[in-house]
Amino acid sequence: MRSEASVLHLDLDAFFASVEQRDKPSLRGKPVVVGGVGGRGVVATASYEARRYGVRSAMSTREARSRCPHAAFLSGRFHAYRAASEQVMTTLRELSPLVEPLSLDEAFVDLAAADLADLSVDTVTRVAEELRAAVTDVTGGLTASVGVGSSKFIAKVASDLDKPDGLVVVSPGTERDLLRPMHVTVIPGVGPATAERLRRAGIHTVADLETVSEGELVRILGNAQGHGLHRLARADDDRPVVSEREAKSVSVEGTYDTDLTDRRLMEGLLTRQSGAVAKRLRAHSLSGRTVTLKLRLHDFTTLSRSVTLPSPTDHGGTIARLARGLLTDIDTSGGVRLLGVGVSGLADWVQEDLFGIDDDPDDGWGPDDDVPDLPTDRQRTWAPGSDVVHATLGPGWVWGSGRGVVTVRFETRDSPAGPVRSFAVDDPELTPAH
After folding, report:
1. Which of the following is catalytic: 106, 175, 267, 411?
2. Is 106 part of the annotated catalytic residue set?
3. What is the pTM of this model?
4. How confident is the model at residue 362 (pLDDT cuts 50, 70, 90)?
């Protein structure tokens, strides 16, 4: 445990939905839901206006529509989310060289590695306020909730206490007082199943947990989880902020604004990605045994499938053959928005004689085959929320589509709420912006 509150956790508020509201003036102050828009879709993020109606992440889109039918349901624009995330992470690294991103919208920052006069509560509070203002400025209006404490655990808990757009600094020595009234699910790793086992033992709050001996927790939850929970219930967390980790895998993936449905195209993209992975492996004198296929379907469901070889390889043909084989058993008829290949189980040697250059020569893909073209504009499905450009009316976004018609609202981040116009889905003057 640190003696100062020097670990900062930043969490961007309702990130995907906030980016959409920032870029679409007509949606500001209104309920927005980002995720799968089909009947089997899942909510990725809901704006705070939508949350007032009970809409939450991981809820089915069908239920979200029943709770908040007047919300804007958008399919998501990952290029915009990545760009905003990069702006935020750059801002954090300007404060401290030790930044540990957890996802696109949250990260830990080690203030002990920053150039600060001291680590008093007043100083870190001022720095955190300045950081929040800088994030809002650099992203064009996004807000973040920040927590600062003596450990990662406490900083993460603190950042959730005053959402949205809040700041909580936990003074050293007050951590256990903060935790005691909270439900046990505040502790990382305590999900529904663990919480139920604790409930059966009469343990509901962190204060209850604090009274249970380590041996009893091990008996209830098992060795690893029991020891860890005993420590965290006492705010005992000495995990460092780690900015770089030793590579445990090498992967390449792509996110597509138009859902992929052509299996031949997907196989070609996997072949190309496998070649890129193999090239990176060889550049670092590495090889790997486990090939993993990653997909994100049209409804934001993310799937991964893996196969492990008896010995490591760095051969693109082998990686591609296995990745295409993994794709065979997955239903992609609804469309695929993300596709990727990774290799893990890394080693610094290859047993060359296991895999010939011409392995599986009859699978339809040779090393020099061209990847089929991505769908043309006329083949595109107009996803709600996606960016478009009209040759005469300029930039806008898809308000909705169906029955051969696509409806567009013409506005930008810096314009007032714009007009709505409808076009034929194959109108040559209307094209995707990305």
Report:
1. 106
2. yes
3. 0.75
4. very low
